[in-house]
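Hey,

Quick one before I head out. I ran the complex with pyridoxal-5'-phosphate overnight. Inputs first:
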Amino acid sequence: MAIPLIDLVAQHKTIENEINSAIKNVIDTVSFVGGEPMTGFEDDFAKFCGVKYGISVSSGSTALDLTLLALGIGAGDEVITTPCTFIATSEAITHVGAKVVFADVEPGTYNIDPKEIEKKITPKTKALLPVHLFGHSCNIEAILDIAKKHNLIVIEDAAQAHGAEYKGKRVGQFGAAACFSFYPGKNLGAYGHAGIVISDNKKTADRVRLLANHGREDKYEHQEEGFNYRADSIQTAVLRVKLKHLEKWNENRRRNAALYNSLLKNVVKPIEESYAKHVYHLYVMKVKNRDKLAEYLKSKGILTGVHYPIPLHLQPAYNRLGHKKGSFPISEEFCDNALSIPMFPELTEEQVRFIAEEVNKFTA
Ligand SMILES: Cc1ncc(COP(=O)(O)O)c(C=O)c1O
């Protein structure tokens, strides 16, 4: 049985007609950038997340860059984030001229640990950039409390957590702004690159929109220098169709995770804290001999991934920060043992049972 880590073909087949007609509509109306297919999606997604404003942009990475810039973070500032994430999170801090400060993660969720954040705060700390990793919300209330105490800005990196909840509220509505990626493999994925910034604050939203569009509100007058970081409407039209299916898809992911949880033995399974509704962007377990297990599963036709093999503080890109092995032990132990097994809404019960059986055989 050949099983990919994620199966975008299976998903596309279930919505092919809706997608084709949405794309045809963009072409027929030649609204390639902007227009209803874009503003309609921005409104729908902001509403879905429980906030007022959404600004679609070219990727999750540019969403982060724009948000930090729009919130006035820059040279001389420090921003605290997690070493257990994709590098786009910390790159954004550097892109605006601020300093990346890592804080270690919690042993259970592998999200940034509020207690570790407190230890890293200095007079230069300006913002906190937590990531809702793999679809599990951070302990956002504890993070907001720290931010309030020290007068810090909170920006949520929700790139992996479309529809995830903290105490019944969707992530993305807690910080000053939140950034999502719609990279194709995400829970809500475009048919190319796209992202969005959401916020309840009009000033922040307006500034992000301005910066994403060369600093202009109308065609010929530029308030400041900005970027071309706008999304394109074929992507937002696709996303608008897919958003209608997201809740059902997330439920299917949760069903598959529950089945894995009931079947897998001899591995450390992902947890769901009582405050969280996990949407399993990835199903990441910890296991001894991770690389050998990955090889074994591959020989059975089961593809896996590692998120992430090297924590950011040990990446050559961050040599300048002077960290070494042992600097962030929880992140390091996680990265040494993490293995992502197939997780997508269309995964069948038969496939989950087969994967679990093969994992159990190897780890017995
Ligand atoms: C946590 C996190 N932040 C940011 C990004 C960047 O998003 P994009 O690939 O759309 O630029 C990603 C993408 O994988 C991510 O996982």
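The chain has a mean pLDDT of 98.

Talk tomorrow,
K.
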